[in-house]
Amino acid sequence: MATIYAITNQKGGVGKTTTSVNLAASLAATKRRVLLVDLDPQGNATMGCGVNKNAVEHSIYDVLVNSRAVSDTVVEAPESGFMVLPANQDLTAAEVELLNEIGREFRLREALAQVIDDYEYILIDCPPSLNMLTVNALAAAHGVVIPMQCEYYALEGLSALLNTINRVKQLINPELKIEGILRTMFDGRNSLTNQVTDDLRRHFGDDLYSTVIPRNVRLAEAPSHGLPVLYYDKQSKGALAYLALAGEILRRAGKKGQVGIDPKN
Ligand code: ADP
Ligand code: MG
After folding, report:
1. Is residue 33 part of a domain?
2. What is the pLDDT of residues 200-214, one digit of tens each?
3. Which residues form the AAA domain (predicted)?
4. Fewer CB atoms near the end CB (10 Å): N or C, the chain?
5. CA-217 nearest atom, ligand 1
6. Residue 155 CB-density burial (10 A; 0-12 exposed, 13-18 middle, 19+ buried)
């Protein structure tokens, strides 16, 4: 049965999509069966995996609004060994169309239930807002991964996110927990970074991943080639960091198996 993680933070540009795509690729590189769910109408995760969001026949919109089967909607990420449930701007309409539906918070959970035994990890790339789509992700997830940029305003807005997570937990998904807080675009030379790290550690303790994702230009370049960084420049600091994150997640899950590529090579 798959473990489902919602990768979320209502701030834009904090590394949600970069984390979703590259964690999916890294987990797939360890031979895990992975599904990446693009839940952002911008479709950046879809494109970043090398799938043309405007050319797909069906998308997550059809799954959420028209009850289309997930297994008939997923496409393979070229070269990367995982599956993608693609999104494009059609998804913008889903929020409005679901508004009057009974059980609208559970559409994604119900859809993923059909394929939960086909995968070991399902990662959901959330949109940059706390809207009905994000609530669908939180209702479907076992854990939340929160990417954070260690900058001055990093903690601003965090309480709104934590409140939403708690509300979802109380009302619709009692099993939901914070899987981890991930520091992204990390620059250890910046003293502010260390201050934010201290704050995060005080607040989240062991929920703070020890893996940090450095600022790395290869991570920013890879999406324009439609590739996870692992297949764009596997020696890059970004690639190694996401492999390390996959390793940390697998260890945390208490599952056997190491990352397939030795980061020291
Ligand atoms: P979000 O999905 O939270 O909006 P993205 O993952 O799209 O954020 O990242 C925002 C921008 O920052 C993108 O252009 C992305 O390529 C870049 N980026 C993300 N993580 C890194 C990193 N570790 N190093 C350098 N650039 C990064
Ligand atoms: Mg994004």
Report:
1. yes
2. 999 999 999 999 999
3. 3-178
4. C
5. 25
6. middle
